[in-house]
Amino acid sequence: MHVVRIAGALALSLAFIPGAGAQGLVVPATEKKIDALLAQMTLEEKVGQLNQYSSAFDVTGPAPSAGAQKVMYDQVRQGLVGSVLNVTGAEATRKMQQLAVEGSRLKIPMIFGLDVIHGYRTMFPTPLGEAASWDPAAMEQSARIAATEAAAAGLHWTFAPMVDVSWDARWGRIMEGAGEDPYLGARAATARVRGFQGGDLAALDTLAACAKHFAAYGFSEAGRDYNTVDLSEHRLRNVVLPPFRAAVDAGVATVMNSFNEIGGVPATGSTHLQRDILKGEWGFAGFVVSDWGSIGEMVAHGYAENLEHASRIAITAGSDMDMEARGYVGHLAALVKAGKVDVKLVDDAVRRILRVKFALGLFDDPYRYSDAAREKQAIGSPAHVAAARDVARKSIVLLKNEGGLLPLDKAAKTIAVIGPLAADKDAALGNWRAQAVTGSAVSLLEGIQAAVPSTTRVVHAEGVKLVTGPRNFMARSVINTTDRSGIPAAVEAARAADVVVLAVGEDAFQSGEGRSQVDIGFKGLQEELIQAVLEANKRVVTVLMTGRPLVLGGTAESLPAIVEAWHGGSQAGHAIADVLFGEYNPSGKLPVAFPRHVGQMPMTYAHKNTGRPGPEPGVTWSSYTDVANDPLYPFGYGLSYTTFTYSEPRVSAPEIARDGTLQVTATITNAGKRAGVEVAQLYVRDLVGSVTRPVKELKGFQKVELQPGQSREVTFTLKAADLAFYTASGKWEAEPGAFKVFVGGNSRDVKEAAFSLK
Ligand code: NOJ
Questions:
Q1: Atom from ligand 1 closest to the CA of residue 259
Q2: What is the 3-state secondary structure (H, E, C) of 716-740?
Q3: Is 424 a catalytic residue?
Q4: Distances (CA, A) of 472 to 5, 89, 183
Q5: How far apart are CA 265 and CA 301, in angstroms?
Q6: Distance (Å, whole) CA 235 – CA 393
Q7: What is the pLDDT of residue 274?
Q8: Ligand 1 mutation target, pool 58, 256, 259, most atoms within 8 A of CB
């Protein structure tokens, strides 16, 4: 058995003076109220505040038995439950709150949490898809609307945003984050925290947010969910942590730790992450919730002997609230009494949780969020639905458009809408769908039908089914690999049409938690359908609906037009039709690359150069012999119905001072015939570092709208501080030397200039 380390950082975190990272949660008057409450609480009541249960529905771990539910209700009445997740609805939350407030001695309200990830009832694109909008205002708006709906249903807290960077599309949960890049990830984290929390946690249309999973969950080995992570402090600090830091700086009220270990230490038991970095260095004043049962899982990890030991490790390491492991409620009081856990650790955790409850206004009125009238009016309002369509179309990425097949003519005589996802009303809702109504999305077929005049014939053929059997969070998708009976009708429809729209990809539950895959190509019989349709009609527009990037393989070459629509949410069908018919000129850019082959995983544009970047004649170099190194479609890539050209970038000075700034300017021209929006991207390369630096790193982006023929100068301001990284001496700072700077429309096609830092 190993020794549990009590961090020096505990003292630091308790003494921390509220600063940028303290999110306004530390209010002197409130701290006094918390002191008074703590003075009245028994040890058991204190531990109760750290205890979180799930109510019976929508569980993401083993479902609690009916007996466990009874235990939960009894404990709620005794003030031994601080929070419940998965209870929702104005009426249900009011009843549950009543148990705690009317039943318990100190009447401390509970905090109700739910995974409100990309909408509550009105669904927006899954977070990865939405990140393709490169539009922080859109991300903020969708989180704002999700919060408005969820708060009206009595909820206080969402387990979002997930800010895990991932370079591996095999990992099913890549759909839930902002993709492969820490800078874009940080921008998304800030926008989403602001959106959920608004300016005021006490407002009736905001939720406390939760940055998760702390940390490095997106780096699980081989992309297998929950798997081991072993990465350097260098990668942790430079790649994994920046979006968390951004969330903390934006005032996120809570953080969730993660299931994985890092370098032999489960994140839930990591003092380094939770106390030293989060609460110490960053001054985070909110609370850390464990992931579901992750305290108990330290036993399976081989890091704790039993649940008691795991609980001791977790509280010592800074995990404040125990989600569903029942370790704290079962063991913490005894551990304190036995002198194995300092009660100060418990007090600190309680204080952090109470801070958030006070900030939410729950002590003023514990029922303030549970309002049936507001619930009815706010949820699914026309304004929310309109926003869902707008955000969905901003998220769509045009990957290929040979011969200008797109946009389509609405007045085409016959459009065949084919494929397993063409008339599907569920996949677009995506995984992690909170209270979306099953089968409630606008299908692509419906979107097309609504868009065209009555003179245009729209013919539908499913072709093949993608999945058979149940489609829900708990069920593993069963892929259809045998039933080809619909292919002849699809071929017939394709042959008789002017143009084919072919909807293929992934069902909602093929990506998400526990959905890692080694084969991320077209599943089932979709490839056969694609080839059969192509033989009948070459004019095929392929609409991909996916949670993750797919490996399109050779199929991408034979398809003339490809649109990535992700799982686009409630209004997906209308949003896609807007793009297909040119009502909306696509401007989305990939937040993560589409690989050529699954064997390239993990991959990122921001890789290191290696000692053998090649190619060089007569030397073997760092490459595969069977597939190119680069992806099929790189990070930042996406086409428009117009074309944009970039001038060479110019820098405002050849050298910048240690505290200086640099302007990088390029002229962008709309060289096509339609108005369009371009996401101009700024990358830098630090040529020599005390630790090696990536070949490119995103440092800025701007969305520019240009009329046909119009040119505009776009200027990025780069501060010397933006060049900082976690150096060999363990400091976050910029190092002097030579840099390259790149401007372009994606991470591959860029033009460059140079400067140096004094
Ligand atoms: C487990 C997931 O990892 C986490 O992201 C989620 O918030 C919890 N379950 C609660 O549903």
A1: 3
A2: EEEEHHHHCEECCCCCEECCCEEEE
A3: no
A4: 42, 21, 33
A5: 9
A6: 34
A7: 98
A8: 256
Measured between alpha carbons, how far is 459 from 496 in angstroms, rounded to an integer?
A: 9
Ligand 1: which residue has its CA nearest to atom 7?
A: 159
292 CB less than 6 Å from ligand 1? yes
For residue 649, CA distances in Å to 13, 360, 619, 634 come to 45, 48, 34, 21
Q: Is the CB of 176 under 6 A from ligand 1?
A: no
Contact by Cβ (8 Å): 88, 319: no
Across all residues in the chain, what is the average pLDDT? 95
Looking at residue 56, its pLDDT comes to 65
Q: What is the pLDDT of residues 108-137, one digit of tens each?
A: 999 999 999 999 999 999 999 999 999 999
* Distance from residue 172's CA to the centre of ligand 1 (Å): 14
Contact (Cβ atoms closer than 8 angstroms) between residue 600 and residue 627: yes
| pLDDT number for residue 63 | 63
Q: Which two tokens mark 244? A: 């968390």
**pLDDT tens column, 357-403:** 999 999 999 999 999 999 999 999 999 999 999 999 999 999 999 99
* CA 454–ligand 1 middle distance (angstroms): 46
**Cβ(159) to ligand 1 under 6 A?**
yes
Instruction: For ligand 1, pick from 292, 297, 321 the residue to mutate: most ligand atoms within 8 Å of CB.
Output: 292
pLDDT at 62 (0 to 100): 56
Q: What is the pLDDT of residue 20?
A: 37
Supply the pTM of this predicted model: 0.96
Burial status of residue 372 (CB atoms within 10 A of its CB: 0-12, 13-18, 19 or more)? middle
Residue type, 235: R
Q: Residue 244 in contact with residue 217, Cβ under 8 Å?
A: no
Percent of the chain with pLDDT over 90: 93
Residue with tokens 């029922």: 367
Q: Which residues are paired to 467 by β-bridges?
A: 479
